[in-house]
Every structure is written in C-alpha cells, then in structure tokens.
Amino acid sequence: xxxxxxxxxxxxxxxxxxxxxxxxxxxxxxxxxxxxxxxxxxxxxxxxxxxxxxxxxxxxxxxxxxxxxxxxxxxxxxxxxxxxxxxxxxxxxxxxxxxxxxxxxxxxxxxxxxxxxxxxxxxxxxxxxxxxxxxxxxxxxxxxxxxxxxxxxxxxxxxxxxxxxxxxxxxxxxxxxxxxxxxxxxxxxxxxxxxxxxxxxxxxxxxxxxxxxxxxxxxxxxxxxxxxxxxxxxxxxxxxxxxxxxxxxxxxxxxxxxxxxxxxxxxxxxxxxxxxxxxxxxxxxxxxxxxxxxxxxxxxxxxxxxxxxxxxxxxxxxxxxxxxxxxxxxxxxxxxxxxxxxxxxxxxxxxxxxxxxxxxxxxxxxxxxxxxxxxxxxxxxxxxxxxxxxxxxxxxxxxxxxxxxxxxxxxxxxxxxxxxxxxxxxxxxxxxxxxxxxxxxxxxxxxxxx
Length: 450
What we know:
Mean pLDDT: 97
Helix content: 40-55%
Structural class: alpha/beta
Oligomer: single chain
Strand order of the largest sheet: 4-5-8-9-10-11-12-13
C-alpha cells in the first residue's frame, strides 16, 4: 500500500494502514452545467453555445472563468471542511478538455481550471475524487451527460471511447503522484440496457489506459442503469478498485418525499431500495462508495430534507460505506449553498421559470411520446416509451434554448451579464444551515465514538 495514499484492502478504504471512511460533497454543476440546478434550459453544451452566440466566444470564456471561480472558491472548501467532511467529488465534462474538431489535442485551459479546484482541496486537506460526468457521444440518455440527442451513442462508437481513454491517460499522468486525489470515478452513471461486453469491455480498456501512468490511485467503477445495477459487471484483476452506487430512492418511490409518511415506513422503503442496489456488489468483496445521494430542497422544508439526507447517510455508515452528497452549490434546487433570492442570477432563473422547468419538461415529453404512438402508430410499451422519451426531451431542450434562453440573454447587456457570476460567490450566497448543522452533528458524534 502506497504511503499517504488512500488505498483499498478487502472491503475498506485505508490511509497508512488505518481504515478511513470517505464523507463528502460533490461540486455538481461546476464543469458540467445541469439545467435544473442552474435554472437555465438546455444541456451544458447548449447553454455555453447560447452564451457564445449572444456575447461572442471571447466574452463567453470570460464569463465561464468567472462562473467556475465563484462557484468553487477557497471559502467554499473551507466551509465544507468546517462541516466535517473529508472529501470532494469533482464532476467535469470532457468538452472542457477536448475539442470535438481536434479530439487528440488537449485544451490546457481545462486542466488549469480543474487543477485550481484540486489545489484548493489539497491546501485544506480534503481528498478529491475526479468524476468524468459527460463523455463524447454521452454515456447515458439524460441531460446530465450533456446529451443533445437523447441517445447514449458513447457505447455504439469506439472512437468516442478512445477519446475517453486518451483523456484518462492524460489525467492519470498528471495526477499519478498526488496523494490528495483519492481516485478516479471513471464514468458517471453508465446508461441502461448495456450488455456485459459493452460495460466490461470499456472498463477493461480504461483500467489499462490509466494504469500506464498510475498504479496506485483507486478506480471507482459504477453500475449500469445510472449507477444502480451491478449485475453485468465482471471482476477485475486490479487491487485498487472500488464500486460506486448512486442512491436516489424518490426516483423509484416518489411517495417517500411525502412529509406525512411515517418516518419508520420511509426508512423501511429506503432500506429495501438500498439493499436491492447493493445486492450484486457483495460478490466483488470491494469497498463501496455511495458517490451520489441527495434531494431537491424546498424553501421552508430544510429540516425535512436534512432528515432525509441523514437517513441516506445512516444507511451507508451502518454498512461501512463511504458517501458523497449531491450537491454543494447550485441555483436553489439541491444545493447546500445557493445565491440570494435578490441576486441577478436568481432573478434570471425566476424569469425563465415562468415558461420552463425540468419537472414540466419531463411531464410534457412523456405525454408527447405516448401521443405519437397512440395517434400515428400503436400504443407504445413502457420500455419503448421510456427510451424515446429522452429523444423527445432533447427536442424540447433545443426549443427552450432558442425560444427562451437566447432571447432572455439578449435582453441582458454584456456589461451587466459579466457580473452575474458574482451571484455564486460564497459571500453573496445563503447557506442552508439547518442541513449543514445536521450533517455536522452527525459526523461529530460518529468521530467521538471512534
């Protein structure tokens, strides 16, 4: 085991021969903007293209630099550490490092942006998990993989997979000797319906690519079906591998978000879903990391959502599973830290919300999908409707960007827009202290018992 590096041994993580549990927050929607979290319609690429079209490429880059610096500052890392967590998951999209027109040429600016965040974490002794959140062709069908077609084309074209191998080779070469990197989450939420050959073939290749330069860092492997299903995964002959599960019980049982439900019954549902997702992981005898878990936090219900988060954490801690919460900062949906209501950004969000929301978009897309089948073909099976729904949503993304986002941006002069990123600066944000205090107290009590 390499000294000062977090390593795996059996079903636990270790640091210098002592067991360690990773507890942390993710920097969701940082180097991979997500529409519902930022309050802007479209995928990451669509949003940035809209800014480029309205303000020009140079100003878009200036705006993007400011956004990334304000969303993740030293004050943010210090605040996270004060809560008691010891790790940060950093999601990023491949677009920040690779130009699709020159896929073999790396964009140094992307590495500079990522390295600033890594260095801030290292300065304050916070471990980092690097998370490739969107890939060429998109590894799943949803918006968070920056998917502009609603199809997971990453699995159909080897050239897309080759690009990811090149990127991980470069990242691992740069960070191989950095002890504050806990490991690499090699691909976020692989899609549904993948064969054993598809998922294992890619994992074998990416493991080999990373190990050319880095023999020591942990490789975090996710199950298919958005990190929920480990059935097709093979066992890999590498000592530093951990498995990553994502836990969002409300996706499968929406009624768990009903405050009127008895807490005992809610926990029974949580436990059943969690155990089902973990069922196939036991055969690997590897450490488990719950890399994502969280809820949309409604104003006025912070105590309720703090309790939900604590339930998720308890499920992990009782089983010796490390955990990471989604997400640290956003525009008021899932973030622990959010811009003030009167800020420029939140005013823009409220304006766009008059005509668009993620929830509304999902309802409309499924309605349209079934309408197409019922009106022009035959009634669609649930499986086919589910698959096609993502493609309909990609059309909605394009329409919303063209008819809502771009017109809204054109009404905001550049001299004003260039200050909008300041809405996300730590001193200009509100902290959901009820949630933070709940997590802080839980961690404190756990550490005192150790």
